[in-house]
Amino acid sequence: MNILVINSGSSSIKYQLIKMPEETVAASGLVERIGLEGALIHYNAGETKLSKEVEIPDHETGLKRITAFLMDSDVGVIEDENHIQIVGHRVVHGGKSLTKTVEVTAEVKEEIRNVFPLAPLHNPHNLRGIEVAEKVFANAKQVVVFDTAFFHTMPQKAYQYAIPKKFMEENAVRSYGFHGTSHKYVSEKAIAYLNEKGLPSEKIITVHLGNGCSISAIKDGIAIDHSLGMGPANGLIMGTRAGDIDQSVIFYLIDKLGYTPQQVNDILLKESGMLGLTGYSDMRDIEEKSAEGNETCRLALYMNGYRIKKYIGSYIAALNGVDAVVFTAGIGENSSVIRKIALEDMEYLGLHLDHRKNDVRGKTIRPINSPEAEKQILIVPTNEELEIAKQSYNLIK
Questions:
Q1: For residue 247, pLDDT beyond 80
Q2: Is 362 annotated among the ligand-binding residues?
Q3: Which residues span the domain enclosing 134?
């Protein structure tokens, strides 16, 4: 069965054509810098590896260019759209009612639309991807996997806010959590790895660091707490998002400095985080500038790592200990600098980083803790697309 997985981000589309249940990838790639100058589409299929700079003003154009590659007479892997049986979509926010993987219906799309305000950078693009895929792959089953679904196991003490409870009961104002597809995938991989090694695996902290960042506390495979909340904006410092911030700052910007609520929202979501601190949103640029002596970038790196450290400590308390801390996603898997800062002076908790192992890059699950360490520190490459394919296949089969 061919499953095309579409992972639409705020300015990108990751895609994989996966054969299930074999879990083999026939084609994969990325459309990046959507809506920006220098947009790129990458396409990989067997020995074919192509990258092309093209104009991609929106997600619809991006998806159509992906489809053209998949069906290309020279480099394509399918003859026509009917060779796609399932299209699996990542949707960031499922709200209160969409708590599991579902087949797309008009009602599902309407609910995704209803929670646009909770994930304004993602849900509109996710829904657009679904609508375009319905046209292009009219005979395929359309399936949605929600990032929030993994966190519906959180206890009420973790997801309820300390505001009048009527807002939760009447308006669904609560913490939902995000990046659940990634956290689910890497936590299961980490637990399997630890079990194979005969190591404890009950208490896991997963750290997802990309342009968006989050951290989860997982006990016996079940999420019990998470850094992101009602929307994907709080918690860790991100590429363009501020993460945790005193709400007084928001009212000060509005009441004293004259910004509108929409302007403040845009500042916190699109102009803050590492971009606001340094002028750069790409961690590779920031690390390079820091290494060249840029103190602003150096401070931003330490602020970023310090925020991660605080969450690791709080989740160790919530779990009553930890068996493994797991780093994943683009920055989590590749930035030895951020991992080093985040784990600095954590030896008293049994977290001993092996700096030599930390500096070695790889694409497989690997420990980066010292051999004598009481606790495990793992890098587990995430594969949200495969997780979406698995859930989509299990639903439809």
A1: yes
A2: no
A3: 2-146
CATH of the domain at 323: 3.30.420.40
Which of 147, 246, 266, 359 is catalytic? The answer is 147
Reported as a pLDDT band with limits 50, 70 and 90, residue 172 is confident
Same domain, 230 and 352: yes
Residue identified by tokens 């309407």 is 110
330 marked as binding residue: yes
Residue partners of 63: CB distance under 8 A and separation at least 6: 6, 13, 129, 132, 133, 136
CA 10 from centroid of its chain's CA atoms: 11
Cα–chain-centroid distance for residue 12? 12
Quote the CA–CA distance of 27 and 16 in Å, as a whole number: 6
Within this chain, do residues 132 and 212 fall inside the same structural domain, yes or no?
Answer: no
Does residue 392 form part of some domain? no
CA angle 381, 276, 305 (to 5 degrees): 45
Domain membership of residue 174 (yes or no) is: no
CA distance 362 to 333: 8
Whole-angstrom Cα distance, residue 247 to residue 383?
Answer: 35
14 is in an annotated binding site: yes
Binding site annotation covers 265? no
Q: How many domains does the chain have?
A: 2
| Pairwise CA distance, residues 30 & 162, whole Å | 41
The most distant pair of C-alpha atoms in the chain lies apart, rounded to whole Å, by 61
Which of these, 182, 180, 189, 212, lies nearest to 364 by C-alpha position? 189
Inter-residue contact 324 to 194 (CB < 8 Å): yes
Is residue 23 assigned to a domain? Answer: yes
User: What's residue 171's pLDDT?
Assistant: 87
| 156 burial level (CB within 10 Å; 0-12, 13-18, 19+) | exposed
pTM value surpassing 0.70: yes
168 is in an annotated binding site: no
Please indicate whether residue 255 is annotated as part of the active site.
Answer: no
Q: Each residue of 85-115: pLDDT tens digit?
A: 999 999 988 988 888 999 999 999 999 999 8
